[in-house]
Design a protein that fits this description.
The complex is a heterodimer. Chain A is α+β, with helices and mostly antiparallel strands. Chain A is built from 17 helices and 32 strands. Chain A has a seven-stranded mixed β-sheet. In chain A, strands 4, 6, 7, 14, 15 and 16 form a six-stranded mixed β-sheet that branches. Chain A has a five-stranded mixed β-sheet with strand order 5-8-11-12-13. The N and C termini of chain A lie far apart (about 90 Å). By secondary structure, chain B is of the alpha+beta class. Chain B has two domains: about 1-85; about 110-335, Bira Bifunctional Protein, Domain 2 (BirA Bifunctional Protein, domain 2). In chain B, about 40% of the residues lie in helices and about 20% in strands. Chain B is built from twelve helices and ten strands. A seven-stranded mixed β-sheet of chain B has the order 1-5-6-10-9-8-7, with helices on both faces. In chain B, a hairpin with a 2-residue loop joins strand 3 (about 160) and strand 4 (about 165). In chain B, helix 5 (about 110-120) crosses helix 10 (about 310-320). In chain B, about 40% of the residues are buried. The chains are: A alpha+beta, B alpha+beta. The interface between A and B is large, with 86 and 81 residues. The structure holds zinc ion (ZN). Zinc ion binds near residues 262, 270, 272 and 273 of chain B.
Chain lengths: ~675, ~350
């Protein structure tokens, strides 16, 4: 809301420069974003919060200034002379929807001359950013800027059947608004109609056909109150917002209609001549009752933590035009003025007190009680993983949860269902909640390659959104891309699991169901029959020049499985014996087979099996491979004898021969 | 005879010491060990000796020959190493760059959230999380923002379906926590939020917020100022000033915008603070009694405060970043600076 410094001065006495005024207003909650010189005046751009429609008029701002600086208020008179002809001779008005239009008034001025308005009006409008049009339109804008009450004028001679009906639109009815927009209306919208057709979308915008033109001689001035939510809904539905709808949807002063109407009609006569028809039409469905609220001093103290005297409080309220009805002991009864629709509870009055007393005058207390706070398991795990990966040279990235619907983003590792779409996306091609983090990381890697960084290790911890019954399932995932091979990333996963105290065994199975991964060098990781994630080298299709591996893990599952209670295990006092072995097996035999076979022998003092090499080629028959590993034997209670280790090793070898057809490589 | 051997040896040692080049050594080798050399000359003397002395003398010549050979070889070694052109002694250069281990970085948004969490953890705040896809109820109604309320304009929102949306504020977590817990409550809730804002240097359709909530008996606006003052002084520095301005949020009353003195110009006025000396960093207020009603808390018994801040905004202020889009481009040259 833009206000004129000179205009404001007409209603309230103050001795403040425009900048000082701006600071004062900012301190009471009316942030002044900007102060500009306009001609010989200043324009202050005031940010009015949505709860304060009363400040969408200069008079409302004047009240705040008066309360803040203690200056007195004085509003201009609104005297005018009217003719002897009754308004009812010219127009007949019915309100069919009293709930949606609780108050409707109209006045008629005849024999006017439409011409540019006087310079003083034009100047003020220019100052507050409104383009002058003609005297009639300018006056409605002027009074709206002054009082916050929107008004509209119709060309009286264009109203069919000399009628105005405030009714719901008939579905399918059309209107062309003043701004040229043609709109089809529906039954849930409120319109102002004449005998035949809608002539305005109530509270939002008038129609082109009844608009004031240079040839207009007789005008009808509408000043009304419309139900805020109705105005908001319709404004959104027809896609038209105006200064008028902006004010109506925030709520106008129920006692302000008459003042604005009289002020406007007086100005019309002054500026456009003509004669005012006697009386006005005033249709009001029910009397407005002012709210009464009791303010308890002890509550003021409790909410604000401030010791403040009752007379200081009541003084603040009076300055804000609140009517203090009663003031005894430790409470104050207050009648709320009609323009302060936002105040109807005790807490609202406390806010007013705090605001005017000054937030910065409320003491800063540091006496909140002591309380312990521990990290949750998910915070611990997430923090650990982050530090772990950073230590390994990974950069953390953050990418958007809303993605495009390209085939890359359609990859879904976690569900067979399609991703969830946003009903009102910002851009048509960015409309989906992601189902997988990897595509965003792939794009990030590509972005960096294009910006000259080829070598890159990145990770992200964020949510994916999977279609669910009513609400989507949100799964937190850990995803990474590294310019390394399969086994390096696999090693990272193994080390991570170990360090998170996850003891369950992983199943690693070939995974060739996703186009992100190479067909051969990719695996699905399962633990306790639940999918923990996928890992593999990037598919050639992705076009990375160097060997690149991808990983996506279910973080929620990692958190669940992590275990940080560590129990100390006695260190063995006896030496361990290491035996290196190399066996020749068929190409099909996997390391997992070998491990399983060795474990099945159940040698109590076999501590570890460590793979160290695989070899194919010279000295190894075709379609066979040599697997080299060592066995570490150690007992807790004795030094192992060579002979018992020999026997154990032989038993293992025999079993490998029998089960897997292995042969000792000599 | 032994004297003779001694003399030959002495002569050799003198000559060897005088030898300056490999060539000299070569000549000495021929002179002593060659076919017509001194040793062979001595060998020729053997038949001339009495029979009983021959064996002993033969052994003496042999061991003498070994000694001579050693001496000459030694000379060769010494002279050959000297014959290589002299190289200056290697100097260890401590100014060469070290072999740096490659360490990654935390994203600046995470870093900021972690720092904020850290300050509030020390004030006894737990961390709480909530869903990003929310029921409209938690994003609006329960927070005292009824349908068709004008303040909804301030919270443009992405919708999935009628009553399901992407949360536009982390205040949703307040309600979920209060629904499931009785006071006292002391939490902060960091997380992603979404708003259909056109992307530019100041706006992003996704950003992060940290929401805070403290509810107990006897909590006042003055405590809110106390807690935020602690936070601001700890996070931004002891010399930073704090300013509260009245504002409006549907879920708090009284509501405030909190400014801190501009750290760039120390309050003198610059482009970062639009020449006001102050920058807005968070919104706060006393929990609106209507919010307490929606979670069935007795507003007469309990009072509380809530606050919320934009993480990117704080990171931008702290590091002097002028474009919010940088956070999501993830250019390594950007990420490596934090
Ligand atoms: Zn500054």
């Amino acid at each position: 809301m833009k206000i004129s410094y000179n205009w404001l001065k007409e209603y309230v006495y103050f001795y403040l420069s425009p900048q000082e005024l701006a600071d004062k207003l900012t301190n009471v909650g009316l942030v002044v974003a900007d102060v500009k010189t306009v001609e010989d005046d200043f324009c202050l751009d005031v940010e009015v919060t949505s709860n304060r429609p009363d400040c969408l008029g200069i008079i409302g701002i004047a009240r705040e200034v008066a309360a803040a600086v203690g200056g007195s208020l004085h509003f201009p008179e609104k005297n005018f002379l009217s003719s002897n002809t009754e308004i009812t001779k010219y127009i007949n008005i019915t309100v069919e929807e009293p709930v949606l239009c609780p108050h409707y008034t109209a006045r008629v001025v005849r024999h006017i001359t439409v011409e540019p308005s006087p310079e003083w009006i034009q100047k003020r409008l220019r100052c507050v950013g409104i383009r002058p049009v003609n005297n009639i339109v300018d006056i409605t804008n002027y009074v709206m800027m002054e009082t916050g009450q929107p008004l509209h004028t119709f060309d009286l001679d264009k109203l069919l059947d000399q009628k105005i009906i405030v009714r719901r639109a008939r579905s399918g009815e059309e209107i062309v608004a003043i701004n040229g927009a043609r709109r089809v209306l529906f039954h849930d919208m409120l319109v102002i109609a004449d005998g035949k057709r809608p002539i305005a979308i109530a509270g939002i915008m008038g129609g082109k056909e009844t608009e004031i033109s240079e040839s207009t001689r007789n005008v009808l001035l509408e000043c009304a109150q419309f139900e805020p939510r109705q105005v908001r809904r319709t404004s959104k539905a027809v896609g038209i917002a105006s200064d008028s709808s902006y004010r109506f949807e925030r709520g106008t002063d129920p006692e302000g209609v008459d003042y604005a109407s009289q002020k406007a009609v007086g100005l019309v006569k002054d500026c456009a001549g003509g004669e005012i028809a006697s009386g006005g039409i005033d249709i009001r469905s029910q009397r407005y009752e002012r709210e009464k609220v009791t303010l308890r001093m002890e509550r003021v103290h409790k909410i604000l933590g401030l010791e403040i005297k009752r007379d200081v409080v009541s003084d603040i309220l009076k300055k804000l035009q609140f009517n203090v009805i009663n003031e005894v002991d430790n409470y104050i009864d207050v009648e709320i003025p009609s323009f302060r629709g936002d105040v109807y509870r005790e807490i609202d009055l406390i806010e007013e007190v705090a605001r005017m007393y000054g937030y910065n005058n409320i003491p800063v207390k540091t006496s909140i009680s002591v309380r312990g706070s521990a990290k949750s398991k998910e915070e611990i795990v997430e923090g650990y993983i982050r530090q772990f990966l950073i230590g390994l040279g990974f950069y953390e990235v953050k990418t958007f949860g809303i993605v495009d619907t390209s085939s890359l983003q359609r990859v879904n590792l976690w569900s067979d269902k399609e991703g969830i779409d946003i009903a009102n996306p910002l851009r048509q091609d960015e409309s989906r909640l992601r189902t997988c983090l990897l595509p965003s990381l792939i794009n990030t890697k590509r972005y960096n390659i294009n910006h000259g960084t080829e070598q890159l290790k990145i990770f992200e911890i964020a949510k994916v959104y999977l279609a669910g019954d009513k609400m989507p399932q949100e799964k937190t995932c850990l995803s990474l891309i590294a310019d390394t091979d399969f086994y390096t990333v696999k090693g990272i996963v193994e080390s991570l699991l170990l360090n998170l105290g996850i003891l369950s065994k992983c199943e690693w199975t070939i995974f060739n169901e996703s186009r992100l991964f190479s067909n051969e060098k990719a695996t699905k990781i399962q633990m306790d029959r639940v999918t923990l994630g996928c890992l593999g080298e990037a598919s050639k299709e992705l076009g990375f020049k160097t060997s690149t591996s991808l990983l996506e893990l279910d973080m929620d599952f990692l958190v669940e499985k992590s275990c940080f209670t560590k129990k100390y295990q006695t260190l063995s006092l006896y030496p361990s014996v290491l035996r290196d072995l190399a066996i020749i097996v068929d190409e099909e035999v996997t390391w997992a087979d070998i491990e399983k076979c060795i474990a099945s022998v159940k040698i109590s003092f076999l501590k570890e099996i460590n793979f160290f090499d695989i070899y194919r080629g010279k000295q190894i028959p075709a379609e066979k491979k040599s697997m080299a590993f060592n066995l570490c034997f150690q007992a807790q209670d004795r030094t192992l004898k060579n002979e018992e280790v020999d026997i154990a090793q032989q038993t293992i070898l025999d079993n490998l021969c029998e089960t897997l057809g292995a042969e000792l490589r000599k | 005879m032994l004297d003779k051997l001694k003399k030959v040896k002495e002569a050799l040692q003198n000559e060897i010491e005088a030898a300056a080049t490999l060539k000299d050594a070569e000549q000495l080798k021929i002179k002593y060990l060659g076919r017509k050399g001194a040793i062979n000359d001595l060998m020729k003397l053997i038949p001339t000796l009495p029979a009983e002395q021959r064996a002993t003398f033969g052994q003496q010549i042999n061991s003498f020959k070994i000694d001579i050979t050693d001496i000459i070889n030694e000379a060769f070694k010494k002279l050959s190493s000297e014959s290589i052109p002299k190289v200056k002694k290697e100097i260890f250069d401590v100014t060469l760059p070290g072999k740096r281990p490659f360490i990654g970085k935390m994203h600046p948004v995470t870093r900021t959230i972690e720092d904020i969490k850290e300050v509030f953890a020390r004030l006894g705040f737990d961390v709480a999380y909530g869903p990003e896809v929310e029921l409209e109820y938690y994003n609006f109604e329960a927070l005292n923002i009824p349908p068709d309320h004008p303040s909804r304009t301030d919270f443009d929102t992405f919708y999935i379906k009628n009553d399901i949306l992407l949360r536009s504020q982390t205040s949703t977590v307040q309600i979920r926590i209060m629904e499931n817990q009785k006071p006292p409550i002391r939490i902060i809730a960091p997380g992603r939020v979404y708003r259909p804002d056109t992307v530019d240097a100041r706006h992003s359709f996704m950003f992060h917020q940290v929401e805070g909530l403290l509810v107990d008996e006897g909590v006042s606006f003055s405590d809110l100022k106390g807690v935020l003052n602690q936070f601001i002084k700890t996070y931004f520095g002891k010399d930073v000033q704090m300013r509260f301005r009245p504002s409006f949020f549907p879920f708090t009353e009284p509501s405030a915008e909190v400014d801190i003195s501009c750290s760039i110009c120390s309050g003198k006025g610059c482009s970062v603070c639009s020449y006001s000396g102050w920058v807005e960093i968070l919104g706060a207020g006393m929990v609106n009694p209507n919010v307490f009603k929606s979670v069935h808390y007795d507003p007469e018994k309990y009072t509380g405060f809530a606050f919320g801040m934009g993480v990117e905004r704080i990171a931008m202020l702290k590091h002097g970043i002028d474009d919010i889009r940088l956070f999501y481009e993830n250019n390594i040259h950007f990420l490596s600076q934090f």
